[in-house]
Design goal:
single chain; 295 residues; eight-stranded mixed β-sheet; two-stranded antiparallel ribbon; 30% helix
Length: 295
């Protein structure tokens, strides 16, 4: 009798547990992989669906995502992969993810270079950027490595590229990793954070590339300089590009031809020099992009 009651209670409790909503692709046909298995203790409110905001004037292009409770990566695999895989962490002030400008647009560009891209949807406020979101970031690296053979990625060439608040995730994983979650390279684009302890840089931290506009994005420029200094003092290979102006956000947009509109060419030069893209050669036009005056 007591066993029957116990079994019934467990059955009822199980039945009342809502199922997690599976993340919907940002682009039709793209494969989305949840980072955590159903029932994982790290998941909360995962029965709630994410909310997409399309681009104004282009409803088929998703620009923003909010209400992320079932973190995931969306696969954008290169047609001719060179083995490099980059996890893309979009920004949005930890309240939304700008997955258009700093996600799908970046993925298309990387794919053309032979780089496979994985758009990360990490948890936002009220989740913690230094706890829940960082766990998602670490798990994304672990997952890409676990599926490296299947997805055409060299497990020793898995990097992360973070923009703004996504750059906070890149910075945090550079400073906090284990053998399974260490990125092989990290890129911080106009990155910013509230508090970040840079006093203990791991001796085996990965090479890092940082860039930001200067005076008109002074907060993120200062954060980038401070992070550069911490890594430089720890003798970690690090490169920094602070441009005189260019404002915040906007990914790889040309920015009307100003120098900050070419930061991503500098990234390609840097990562090629590291040996991460040995077969990559930028077109001559990309290496010497003219400004508005044509020189």
């Amino acid at each position: 009798k007591y066993l029957a009651i116990l079994v019934l209670s467990c059955t009822i409790g199980f039945a009342e547990t809502p199922a997690c909503q599976q993340p919907v692709p940002l682009e039709p046909g793209a494969k989305v992989v949840a980072l955590w298995s159903a029932g994982s203790p790290t998941l909360r409110n995962c029965d709630q669906q994410e909310v997409f905001t399309p681009t104004k004037g282009n409803p088929s292009r998703i620009q923003k995502v909010v209400n992320i409770n079932n973190p995931s990566i969306e696969l954008h695999l290169a047609a001719k992969p060179n083995g490099l895989g980059m996890i893309l962490a979009a920004g949005g002030g930890n309240t939304e993810l700008n997955v258009g400008t700093e996600g799908t647009d970046i993925a298309k560009w990387l794919n053309d270079l032979g780089v496979s891209a994985f758009i990360l949807r990490y948890r936002l406020r009220p989740y913690g950027s230094d706890t829940d979101a960082l766990a998602d970031t670490a798990q994304s690296i672990k997952m890409v490595r676990a599926h490296a053979g299947e997805w055409g990625v060299d497990p020793s060439r898995v990097g992360i590229m973070g923009f703004s608040a996504g750059g906070e995730q890149a910075a945090r994983i550079v400073l906090n990793f284990d053998a399974d979650t260490r990125p092989d390279v990290a890129v911080l684009v106009y990155a910013g954070w509230g508090k970040l302890d840079m006093s203990r840089v791991p001796k085996n931290a990965p090479p890092v590339f940082l860039t930001s506009a200067g005076i008109d994005d002074a907060f993120h420029a200062r954060e980038s300089v401070e992070f550069y200094t911490a890594l430089f003092n720890a003798q970690i290979p690090v490169e920094l590009h602070i441009y005189s102006h260019g404002g915040h956000a906007n990914g790889i947009s040309p920015r009307n031809g100003i120098p900050f509109g070419t930061w991503h060419y500098r990234f390609v030069e840097w990562i090629t020099d590291l040996g991460m893209m040995k077969d990559m050669r930028l077109p001559a036009a990309s290496l010497s992009s003219p400004n508005k005056r044509g020189w």
